[in-house]
Specification:
The complex is a heterodimer of chains A (1022) and B (445). Chain A is mainly beta. In chain A, 10% of the residues lie in helices and 48% in strands. In chain A, the strands form 11 sheets. Chain A has a 22-stranded antiparallel beta barrel. Chain A is globular, with a radius of gyration of 33 Å. With 445 residues, chain B is mainly alpha-helical. Chain B contains 17 helices and 8 strands. At the A-B interface, strand 25, strand 26, strand 27, strand 28 and strand 29 of A face helix 1, helix 3, helix 4, helix 5 and helix 16 of B.
Chain lengths: 1022, 445
């Protein structure tokens, strides 16, 4: 009875309480509602303007918030009225805070634009054994946000994206012409004689990055540049042996991993990019003077009149267009990309059309890139990624880029266009000025009859024989056509949480046809004109990789991951060359030539490797990872078996320790690694090779004979790079400052040296032997800081610094580089140091030449880096970006001046350098003295510089305006590059190396400097 | 916390079957993948690659084909000889630099440094290769003796020819280089190297006799005479030269237009065939660093041995082209030895013995071919040698004799080297690479 009554009472009490609560709640809600408004808007990525899904948008202190949907939209209902602070957060992005005034009963719109955060610990990085979280990796990870940089820099190729944006990675151009080769170095110079280019992978397929000389000077084509930046999602750079161990032989100089775009349900968008712009030559060319052996009076000096006339200077008469080979080269690009998908299927399709004109009329490039990427899950816990890219391009190169036969050579070495040839007394006017257009100008100024000075009397064609004149250069044809396919298929299967298996097959193939043609025109330089050379290159690379990772949880919160893997890599290169000399007029194919020649080269290199890696993780914050890779390679000497490359790395996320004072430092990770990698010999370096050549016989026929080429080495082994790397990653000041620091010591043992043999043995080429040792030591620092972040503006600054010292620590016999004892690899000296005899003047003004050669500098910069600033205004609608690059501590040979001053050209203006009294200055004396001028020391200069690489201004078009053309977002950018150069180097450009990818030789020789460009870019998203 | 289907337990019989089926599938996939990885790792056998490009000693086999062997020695000599001529004539007064390469300018200026890259690459290496091939050819030919299908007559001929090349390359090394090494041995002075050449020429003569080759025998004898002349053994020189026919004997280094590499390099560099003109006869107006004038310019112009070529332009556009007219095409041969050389050697020996009239008589037919009157030796010896120098230069123009003549005559106090130069080199130094890599070469010999 009592229980019944009590139960009833309780029920009534419960009901009454509930009703009261509901009433109160309703009332509260009603009251709150009456005092609340709605905040609604759209969250987009600050760079791409794409919607960002899953962003937490909340009002701190009010406990109200929302999450953005697939279209980026969010709605916070019941936002308290008044001025509120809205915060947006998402993993991988920087938090964003904005103020908004909420009006009760009304909806206020607040669109948010969030920026990608620098690499966070949970971010996934690609490693040789698969994907790992950054926190687990014991080495520095350089990751380049390509999409962000593309928007700011409008880069035309991947090398421009990387330049200045990856600490410790150095990019140099061989010339300023479109389509010519770049050189990449990661942490100094790893090898003495082998290539120091890093390996490159695209979606797991190893690709060929050959640079091929065009046979017309220093220019070379470059297969590294075939990848379209608009198709790239990210680039990761594995910098040294400590990180590259599991990539095996050939990875000692680092690895560049390119990942192209993928699609998924969350990121579904079509993007259209339209770029248009121009490039022009804004370089300063060195002074030059006329040949002193033709007496034009004491101290006569022609200060760049020739090159100015070549550029069509302001004081030129109407003949400017006739003689001016420079132009403003147009550049445009159309890029269309579409990505999307469902929960289990994603796609990315992209098409890119690019057309670029160089600053000389004979240089341009047109390229098409087509990409198709699919990813899908055929069944649960299995994923397949398919990637395919097709590139076709046609590039026309300048004839004689970086040598005396080209435009720059003609301008700097040839006689000025006004100089008389048979002048008894040129100043009296008694002899005709036999060249134009200066003669025309002089005649016009003096009022003389122009009839005497006409084009027919001009001997413009009598330029220096090694320098072709404008007419001739314009008719020479140097072209290269490319078709390339790169594809890969990756299958990943996970079995529960304990076993993951990955299989990758990659294929890269290209055909490259190049030809250069000197047509049949009247002004023959040598008897071999006209001539034509055709080169066909076929390259195929096959990558097969597989790995399995077993994950197991041990007691004491220890997790182990054991990975076993294997890799097969094969590359074949087949190059066929044919040439023909002497065509009848009107013809130009190989079969018409009077004299024909042919050659063929073939290489086949194969590598098989397998590895084991064991990762031990403790409390998900301390990781130790030992590993070893075993390799066999077809280029190893026959006496060599399997090579082992061990490594060990460690990572500790210190800030997650309970004792860590996290107020000052938000994140701190200590990392270190000790690892080895290798560099294989050339395909046939272990063999004794004889050369076959045709031999003329007394009966007039030809037969084959042989002669020695190189002495083999049965014990030849790969170079072995060992690196110790330590560093830390830290974030502080509420993660607004990100600091990365790395110090490394990289030693290359058994460096392959083409050991010179006594020429008297008959094997002058030498013998490959593992007798060298190189050490690269350095530090890398990157500081990324959000200096200002408020409603009015934001300011992000990124400063990078990389210091490196490259030294030869073991080399029994010095190796001369670049001929004539200019540089040497010498034990105890810097890599490729300059060994020269210093020249000076004594107190009496006499020339003093040191008796012995000494180390006077080195070509590799001691330090380099960049400073990039991004300022945004109008709530990230307007952004302004600048990037400076700097480099220093190196010396460079001005080989242009060598030719100007030391040969019969005599166009060295410094010889006539006089003071106000007419006396030769110090430099004039030195450059006038034949003995002094003979010393290469006279042409060695400081190669330091600061360059303003990029300035850009971007504006996010108002949404309503974008929507009028059906776009969900629109962005307009004005981008300029190579704005200014500050340097004491007197040559054209200290960042150009006419020696291309040669390891130590750094030389500026009649090189075209980097041009200045301006681009307008429109990006539309749908 | 959600569970995957593999983690959840469905106790219904069918559910269990399904889970087991899915797990089994997954395990099969994983096992297959693992097996693939292991198989890949185990597959170490396919690292052998074919090499259709390179010729290796293994390709030649134990009995190298004698044809390719003999051709190798000939070809290496052809490629060395023409380059030797260009550079030795540049150091002497026969040519001046008309190009842009600083290392050629060094030679023209007689201020050659040991690290001169042209010195090494354009002369020393080709000569060393030619010497190596000549000696190697003999070893291979000896090895081929009695082999199946070997033509013994051709083999003997090849041995004699290779030995002759061996002697000739040694003589060229002696005449051009202050000191030179062979096969990593000591750097011998010119005299010692020429003694070495003499021994090889004498052996070549024996081999030529064995091969029953009169031409090679005469060539070997002429080489022997040349070596004896250098060594100051004049009687022996005259005796050897007397065994060379006075007329009709000529042995050439042959060239061809079949390919660029087979062309006469002297013609290419002095005539603008395939290459720009980088060597010209100095006319005293313009040169690189000094205005060098060929001493016989007027005489040789008058007989047409050289000719001004205003239609051609030197590579540096400054030196006027005065070109030789002996060789005008890419397939023009270069004499290695001739009846004329034999007569000149005999005449010089007579001049040194003050038998001037006999010497002049020997040279009369040679001069007659140029429509020149008989030569007069005025005496004393030094004046005679100056006359002799011109005789030799005319008959042996552009065959590499000039430097050797100038060096020999300096021993007699006759200095005919060009003046006004920056240096005073009379021979090429041992290249730096030889000094760096061959410890035996540093001590000299």
């Amino acid at each position: 009875m009592c229980s019944h009554h009590i139960s009833a009472w309780l029920r009534r009490l419960t009901a009454m309480t509930g009703m009261a609560v509901l009433t109160l709640a309703s009332g509260a809600l009603a009251q709150a509602h009456a005092q609340a408004g709605v905040v609604s808007g759209r969250v987009v990525d600050a760079t791409s303007q794409q919607a960002v899904v899953g962003v937490q948008v909340f009002i701190a202190g009010a406990n109200v918030g929302a999450t953005s949907g697939s279209d980026g939209r969010y709605t916070i209902a019941s936002a308290p009225a008044g001025v509120q602070t809205v915060t947006a957060r998402r993993v991988g992005y920087l938090p964003l805070t904005r103020s908004v005034t909420v009006v009760a009963g009304e909806t206020v719109t607040l669109d948010l634009s969030i920026s990608v955060a620098p690499l966070s610990l949970e971010q996934v990085v690609v490693t040789a054994s698969g994907e790992s979280r950054k926190r687990e990796v014991g080495t520095a990870v350089a990751q380049v946000d390509v999409a962000d940089l593309q928007g700011k820099t409008g880069s035309k190729d991947i090398s421009q994206i990387l330049q200045g944006n990856a600490t410790g990675v150095t990019i140099t151009q061989s010339t300023g012409s479109v389509g010519t080769a770049t050189n990449i170095r990661v942490r100094g110079n790893t090898s003495i004689n082998l290539s120091n280019m890093p390996l490159v992978y695209v979606d797991g397929a190893r690709v060929n990055t050959n640079a091929r000389s065009l046979g017309v000077g220093g220019a070379a084509s470059d297969r590294f540049l075939d990848i379209s930046p608009d198709d790239i999602e990210s680039v990761e750079i594995v910098k040294g042996p400590a990180a590259a161990t599991l990539y095996g032989t050939e990875a000692a100089a680092g690895v560049v991993r390119v990942t192209t775009k993928r699609g998924n349900a969350a990121r579904s968008q079509t993007t259209l990019v339209l770029d248009g712009g121009q490039r022009w030559d804004a370089n300063q060319y060195p002074d030059r003077a006329w040949n002193p052996l033709i007496n034009l009076g004491a101290g006569y000096k022609d200060t760049t009149y020739y090159i100015n006339s070549l550029k069509g200077g302001a004081d030129m008469p109407n003949e400017r267009s006739y003689y001016d080979p420079f132009r403003k080269g147009n550049a445009y690009k159309l890029s269309l990309g579409s990505r999307g998908g469902t929960g289990t299927f994603g796609y990315y399709m992209g098409y890119n059309l690019s057309s670029q004109e160089g600053v000389f009329s004979t240089n341009d490039q047109k390229a098409h890139n087509l990409r198709s990427n699919l990813n899908f899950e055929p069944f649960k816990n299995a994923r397949i990624n398919l990637s395919s890219g097709f590139t076709t391009s046609n590039t026309a190169f300048n004839y004689g880029d970086g040598e005396s036969w080209g435009f720059v050579g003609a301008a700097l070495l040839g006689p000025p266009m006004w100089a008389p040839i048979n002048a008894a007394d040129p100043t009296s006017g008694g002899a005709k000025m036999l060249t134009c257009p200066r003669a025309l100008e002089e005649a016009r100024k003096s009022g003389s009859s122009l009839a005497d000075v006409t084009a027919s009397t001009c001997i413009y064609d009598r330029t220096f024989q090694g320098a072709n004149n404008y007419d001739r250069l314009s008719t020479m044809d140097v072209q290269q056509r490319l078709e390339r396919f790169t594809g890969s298929a990756t299958g990943i299967h996970t079995l529960g949480s304990w076993l993951s298996t990955r299989l990758t097959a990659g294929y890269d193939s290209y055909t490259e046809r190049g030809f250069n043609m000197v047509p049949n025109i009247p002004l023959k330089i040598v008897d071999s004109d006209p001539n034509r050379t055709v080169t066909d290159a076929l390259s195929r690379s096959l990558t097969l990789e597989g790995s399995s990772t077993l994950t197991y949880q041990l007691p004491m919160r220890i997790q182990t991951q054991t990975t076993v893997g294997a890799q097969w890599y094969q590359t074949q290169n087949n190059v066929t060359t044919a040439s023909s000399i002497g065509f009848p007029p009107g013809t130009g194919t190989l079969g018409n030539g009077a004299q024909r020649d042919a050659g063929e080269q073939f290489t086949d290199v194969r590598t098989i490797g397998y590895y084991v890696q064991e990762q031990l993780g403790w409390r998900d914050r301390v990781f130790i990872t030992p590993a070893v890779r075993f390799d066999r390679n077809s280029a190893f000497g026959p006496n060599l078996g399997t090579i082992a490359y061990p490594k060990i790395s460690a990572s500790w996320v210190v800030n997650e320790e309970s004792w860590f004072p996290s107020r000052a430092i938000n994140e701190l990770r200590l990392r270190g690694a000790l690892g080895t990698s290798g560099k294989q010999p050339g395909p046939f370096d272990a063999l004794t090779v004889l050369t076959t050549t045709p031999v003329s016989l007394p009966n007039g026929s030809s037969e084959i004979g042989f002669s020695p080429q190189s002495l083999g080495n049965k014990d030849l082994k790969p170079e072995r790079g060992q690196e110790l790397e330590v560093g830390f990653d830290a974030k502080f000041l509420d993660r607004r400052v990100n600091l990365e620091f790395t110090a490394y010591n990289k030693k290359t043992r058994d460096a392959l040296v083409l050991r010179p043999l006594p020429p008297s043995t008959g094997f002058a080429t030498g013998q490959w032997d593992n007798v060298g040792e190189v050490i690269n030591k350095g530090v890398e620092v990157a500081v990324d800081a959000d200096l200002v972040r408020n409603d009015f503006m934001s300011w992000n600054s990124r400063l990078t610094y990389a210091g490196v010292s490259s030294k030869i620590t073991k080399l029994a016999v010095p190796i001369a580089i670049g001929g004539r004892g200019l540089q040497e690899h010498r034990e105890g000296s810097e890599y490729g140091a300059y060994f020269m005899k210093p020249v000076s003047l004594d107190a009496s003004g006499n020339i003093v030449i040191a008796p012995l050669s000494v180390n006077v500098g080195h070509p590799t910069p001691d330090y380099e880096g960049s400073l990039a600033n991004t300022l945004t205004f109008l709530k990230d609608k307007l952004s302004f970006y600048t990037q400076f690059g700097y480099s220093g501590g190196n010396k460079m040979i001005n080989y242009t001046e060598v030719y100007q001053c030391r040969t019969a050209f005599g166009t060295c203006a410094a010889r006539y350098d006089r003071d106000a009294s007419g006396n030769l200055t110090r430099i004039g004396k030195l450059k006038s003295d034949p003995a002094a001028n003979f010393q290469p020391y006279m042409f060695l200069y400081d190669g330091s510089y600061v360059r303003l690489r990029t300035i850009s201004l971007s504006y996010v078009v108002p949404l309503q305006l974008a929507q009028t053309i059906g776009a969900s977002s629109a962005n307009v950018s004005l981008i300029g590059s190579n704005f200014h150069l500050w340097t004491d180097y007197p040559g054209t450009d200290p960042e150009i190396n006419s020696q291309g990818r040669q390891n130590a030789s750094a030389r500026d020789f009649l090189s075209l400097g980097q041009p200045r460009t301006f681009t307008i870019s429109l990006r539309l998203a749908y | 916390m959600t569970h995957t289907s593999h983690d959840s337990v469905d106790f219904t019989p069918n559910g269990v079957k399904h889970i087991r089926a899915r797990s089994r599938t997954g395990r099969m996939v994983a096992f297959a993948a693992f097996a693939a990885i292991v198989s890949l790792a185990a597959c170490t056998s396919d690292l052998s690659v074919t090499d259709p490009v390179n010729l290796t000693p293994d390709d030649l086999g134990s009995n190298a084909p004698i044809g390719i062997t003999i051709n190798g020695a000939r070809g290496a000599f052809q490629r060395a000889y023409d380059r030797h001529i260009l550079y030795t004539d540049l150091l002497s007064d026969a040519f001046v630099a008309a190009g842009t390469f600083p290392y050629q300018a060094e030679v023209d200026d007689r201020s050659i440094r040991a690290n001169n890259e042209g010195l090494l690459g354009d002369m020393y290496v080709p000569l060393s290769v030619a010497r190596f091939m000549a000696d190697t050819a003999i070893a291979l030919l000896d090895q081929a003796k009695g082999g199946v299908g070997v033509d013994e007559a051709a083999r003997l001929q090849g041995v004699a020819q290779s030995r002759y090349f061996g002697g000739y390359t040694r003589a060229l090394l002696a005449e051009a280089y202050c000191a030179s090494a062979i096969s990593g041995g000591p750097a011998l002075t010119s005299d010692l190297r020429m003694a070495d050449a003499l021994a090889v020429f004498q052996d070549a003569a024996a081999k030529a006799t064995e091969a029953n080759s009169p031409q090679l025998l005469a060539a070997a004898r002429l080489g022997e005479a040349r070596a004896q002349l250098w060594l100051g053994k004049y009687a022996e020189a005259a005796a050897a030269a007397a065994l060379v026919p006075e007329t009709g004997f000529l042995i050439n280094s042959v060239y061809s237009n079949a390919s660029v590499g087979q062309k006469n390099f002297v013609v290419r560099e002095t005539y603008g065939i395939d290459e720009a003109i980088r060597f010209a006869v100095g006319d005293g107006t313009v040169s690189f660093l000094h205005n060098e004038r060929f001493p016989y310019l007027d005489n040789f112009l008058s007989i047409g041995l050289i000719r001004r070529r205003p239609d051609l332009s030197a590579f540096n556009s400054a030196v006027p082209v005065v070109a030789q007219t002996k060789m005008l095409t890419g397939d023009a041969p270069i004499p290695m030895g001739s009846s004329a050389e034999g007569l000149l050697i005999r005449a010089e020996v007579l001049v040194r013995a003050a038998n001037r009239s006999a010497a002049a008589a020997l040279l009369t037919p040679l001069r007659a071919a140029w429509n020149l009157p008989p030569v007069t030796f005025p005496g004393p010896l030094q004046a005679d040698l100056r006359v002799m120098a011109e005789e030799r230069s005319r008959e042996l123009f552009v065959t590499g004799e000039r430097l050797a003549t100038l060096r020999r005559y300096m021993k007699d106090g006759v200095d005919l080297f060009p003046t006004g130069t920056g240096g005073s080199a009379t021979c090429f130094p041992v290249p730096q690479q030889e000094l760096d890599t061959n410890p035996n070469a540093r001590g000299g010999g």
